[in-house]
Amino acid sequence: MRSRQYGPDLTPPWKKTAPVPEVPAEADLVVEEVGTGFCGAVIRCEKTAQGPVVTLEDRFGKHRVFPMEPRGFLLEGRVVTLVRPSAAGARGPARTASGSVAVPGARARVARAGRIYVEGRHDAELVERVWGDDLRIEGVVVEYLEGIDDLPAIVAEFGPAPDARLGVLVDHLVPGSKESRIAAQVTDASVLVVGHPYIDVWEAVKPSAVGIAAWPRVPRGQDWKTGVCRGLGWPENTGAAWQRILGSVRSYRDLEPALLGRVEELIDFVTAAPDH
């Protein structure tokens, strides 16, 4: 039996599929999935029984998982095929919990005159957990106030100046709230008061990071943290509950964008060079 002899490929050029670049799916690479238009940064790549998949995170913190199919993504408007990065490429530059590039061997800077004030101990611990490395390199000290009822007097005592700026992070800073009325009393140009919409900084941690579907809705007049513990079926020990929540935070990806943006804004404000 004679074997068949195949000649050259006679497919017309206009019917051939042009090759596209293969791009390693390294962390923080921003791509768009062609089928859905979902745009986000690469969080991780995984090998599954159905083939390799990539997880993307959009600017609102939403995660989607997509198969790494040929010609499946757009990179800066060009069609590409994502491939799993090599072991060396996967490591990439070391990053801090806030997503900044880590500076190996960097020493803490001498503390600036400027400060960042937050309302409570839990706020301070969360900021330290995610931005601690950055704050030490920048020489920014974070202090907590145990509430902001006396904020105007606290600001006056601090004595802000162009070379000693003060940033303040306020919980539940929404229109019409008590917190918004207090914040409006601070008008010094060397002070920046910003806030997030959550009743407590606990809510600024994404429920998915804690392993819950959502934060419970606590009836008005009930202690919010105790109500959260009850709603989740946790022991009514708010200290232990906070340690459980804080322990679930690994990086900025575990926090809501409404908090991330405000803390970054404060750090930029406090570390900005004085105007001349």
TrEMBL record:
It comes from the Bacteria. Residues 22-85, 115-271 form the DUF3097 domain. This is DUF3097 domain-containing protein. It comes from Streptomyces albidochromogenes. The lineage of its organism: Bacteria, Bacillati, Actinomycetota, Actinomycetes, Kitasatosporales.
